[in-house]
Design brief:
Layout (H helix, E strand, L loop, with lengths): L1 H19 L4 E2 L12 E6 L6 E6 L5 E6 L3 E6 L4 E7 L5 E6 L5 E6 L4 E5 L4 E5 L8 E4 L5 E5 L1 E8 L5 E17 L5 E6 L4 E5 L4 E6 L6 E6 L5 E6 L3 E6 L4 E7 L5 E6 L5 E6 L3 E6 L4 E7 L5 E6 L5 E6 L4 E5 L3
Amino acid sequence: MSRMYLFVTLLICFAILSVSCGDDSTDNGDGDNNGEEIGLIRTFSEHNSTINSLDLSTDGTKAISAEDGGKIIYWQVTDNKVLKELIYLGGNVYSSVFSPDCTHLISGYSDYMVRYWDINNSTCQEFNISGDVVYTVDISPDAAYGLLGTFRFLKYWTLSDGKEVYSTDAHTGYVRSVKFCSQGIYALTCGDDFAVKYWDLKNKSLLREMNGHTDAVYSVAFSPDGKKGASGSQDGTIKYWDLTNGACTKTFSGHSASVNSIAISKDGLYILSGSNDKTMKLWQIDNASCINTFSSHTDVVTSVSISDDGKHAISGSKDKTVKYWLIRK
């Protein structure tokens, strides 16, 4: 009798310990929830291939997701309703970003082209200015300029006429991510050469090169005030940089494989990351801690995007799905 009591007591203690000392991991499987609990809300399964890039609209109600094979889907995250399919069958779409007013999007393709889509009428303007595969694109806050990264080169051009304003040999190997700052006159880039670079687009000059990663860097993001930056690398870490002096002020470790995509919340307090370890993580910047790990994808997480209110996110994966999450209340 005493042995049975001891066994039950141990089980109760173990259960209490498991709840209080968990790994902060959230896994909702593939079931929907009502959006009131932190975790997976719903899964979008309309793609036929790897999701390479995605973006949430500024109001957080719509998304674009781009796949291998040339298809971009514009859809409603509230109910998974497909609103438009923007298809160009000449190459894979590697990067796709909403314009600030979310009426257009800019996309980079494997056929060396950049396409600027009018979402409402499903037409696009083509820019043949890269000379190689376009792995990454961005659009300026005033929607007047575009940025692209290709093999070695960063290119900056006007969207109205496709005129090149600035082109520079930016990295050794492919440029993997480009981002405008909120003011639109500075940019961050990263690449296969393990480096993160900070550019003055107005004066066409490199302001700072930041080193510290030990493998290719796949994603960069600016803080809202443009004074800080973050980078995610194949070395499995995220680094947070002071752009005024190039110092790495924080390193975030916790992913067990390459970090493919990062985003910083609009309040500047959090970083969201997606990884080859099939998870998405939410980090608190001030203490470099992981608040939560979101697990539901069955393959590599290729891209993440966070809503303007910082409460919701979407993640795209090699498993051909996009998942819509509540990440914070």
